[in-house]
Write a structure and sequence with these properties.
4 helices; mainly alpha
Length: 88
């Protein structure tokens, strides 16, 4: 028979596993968006400076990365994208 303490330990473990999975999925989405932004920039502007690459990889907020992906497509010049990237 399972004790109340055992039940709560089991619940805590399950919750920890679920949170870990969610964080892993979120990190995977962010990494995919980072790669997409960098791919778009390299196709559109050829040489992407290392500092821009590092700044994109440093962004881990999925909504911000989705915004940057759109801006990578719409920016007329790389400098325009860089100034948007450096905001915030």
């Amino acid at each position: 028979m399972q004790t109340v303490a055992d039940y709560w330990v089991e619940q805590g473990i399950e919750q920890g596993i679920e949170q870990g999975i969610e964080q892993g999925i979120e990190q995977g989405i962010a990494q995919g968006l980072q790669e997409t932004v960098l791919d778009i920039l390299s196709v559109r502007f050829d040489d992407v400076p290392l500092e821009i690459e590092e700044a994109v990889v440093a962004v881990d907020d999925v909504d911000r990365l989705r915004y940057l992906r759109r801006q990578a497509v719409l920016a007329v010049e790389l400098d325009e994208f860089a100034s948007l990237l450096m905001k915030e």
